[in-house]
Amino acid sequence: MTTDLADAVRKYIDKIRGDAGDLEVSWMDLIDVANGGTVYKTIPLRFNPQLRYGADEDDDDDDSDGDGSGKGGKPADMTLGVDRRKIIEIEKNWGLKFTRKGKKTKKYLEYMLSEYGNQENQEQTIKSMIERQIMTSAYDPKNFKIEVKEEDMRYDIANERVKPYESAYFIMIKDVSWSMENSKDLSNLVSLYIDIGLSEMYKDKVTKMYMIHTDNAVEVSQSEYFRAAENGGTSFVDVYKTVESMLNGTSYKSKVSHKKIDFINEDVYVLHITDGGNLSRENGEVLSIVKGLLPKITKLMYLEIGDSTYMNMGIQPSTSFMNELMDLKSDKVSAVSTMNKEEGSIRKVVPKLFN
Question: 200 vs 14, 74, 97, 100, 331, CA distance in Å?
Fold first, then answer.
């Protein structure tokens, strides 16, 4: 008796979609996916005990052991391409929805020409007059006269239109102090899942900006953001002052070319990933800066990653800043904490950040 190979394939398809866990790709793979590429993963299929693959049906010696390695079985592989669409499928299975609570629109005036309207268009009126003179043989280039008749009059009509913006700025900020060493993989994976989701939602019209920080903050390239080595201490003051400068168009430390963020007309997302080890005496100053930022941004997502190695050293990161963020009770702020390498942490953390 045999079973359909499709049953085994379906189980693996479900896994790759995230129904049975996170997608088994590294953050380095996801960088290629984020930039529009496809990563190919070859997965060995394991058959159930009833599957007779590559053997005669009248062979009664069923010595397949159910993992594809038995004598009656034959190993098989399935190659799947992982691209942005596949990541979006996974995020949908998590129940993740990229809402746009801060969706912005702008009003603009659309001008049309008409015989009747509010404001005379002199250029079009003279053109209409000349056309009429030519058509009636009254046009004389040597003795040209401006004789405007009622039928020559042309007017501008201005209609107000509303235009939705389909683009956004996404500022990713990562703590790279020495205490974040063991959290690098998790922080990069969270960054990339959100990055890919936003890129798809805005149809690739996302301006991505990357920042790393220890005691000081600096804007960097995507490559440096994901590959920066951990060192130094932690401070949040320069982080949020830098975001403030990005929004206001004032000078800040950067290794890449940048421009002022058009926060009036476009959505702005800010993601800050850290272990929360900020100096508690700075919290008041940082919170004051954050309050000034909130009217200008769509969402501030704050992720605090706890690390068992860090805590075993007897160093307890301050959580007061996270608590103060939560006390703001703003729908523009999501503050989430998780343990490093927590089982299924990606699919737990990312949806919470967008709540």
Answer: 22, 40, 12, 13, 23
Query: 334: closest CA among 345, 344, 322, 346?
Result: 322
CA dist 269 and 323 (Å) reads 20
Average pLDDT over the chain, rounded to whole? 77
Q: Is the distance from CB of 353 to CB of 320 less than 8 angstroms?
A: no
Q: Supply the pLDDT for residue 49.
A: 43
Q: What is the C-alpha separation between 127 and 134, in angstroms, rounded?
A: 11
Q: How far apart are CA 179 and CA 79, in angstroms?
A: 38
The answer to whether 322 touches 276, Cβ cutoff 8 Å, is yes
Over residues 13-26, the pLDDT tens digits come to: 565 554 434 456 78
Q: Kindly report, residue by residue over 172-199, the tens digit of the pLDDT.
A: 999 999 888 888 889 999 999 999 888 8
Helix, strand, or coil here: 123?
Answer: helix
- Between the CA of residue 88 and those of 83, 171, 265, 355, what are the distances in Å? 9, 20, 26, 17
Q: How far apart are CA 115 and CA 152, in angstroms?
A: 8
- DSSP three-state, residue 190: helix
pLDDT in tens, 93-105: 887 777 565 456 6
Distance between CA atoms of residues 339 and 12, nearest Å: 28
* 279-327 pLDDT per residue, tens: 666 888 999 999 999 999 999 999 998 764 444 444 444 446 888 899 9
CA angle 259, 262, 267 (to 5 degrees): 120
- What pTM value is reported for the model? 0.69
Query: Cα torsion at 9, 10, 12, 16 (round to 10°)?
Result: 130
Pairing of strands 333-339, 299-306: parallel
> Which segments of the chain does DSSP mark as H helices, in order?
5-16, 27-34, 84-93, 122-135, 184-201, 222-227, 237-248, 283-293, 308-312, 320-327, 345-353
Q: Compute the distance between CA of residue 274 and CA of residue 280 in angstroms, rounded to an integer.
A: 14
Q: Regarding beta strands 217-220 and 206-213, do their DSSP bridges make them parallel or antiparallel, or are they unpaired?
A: antiparallel
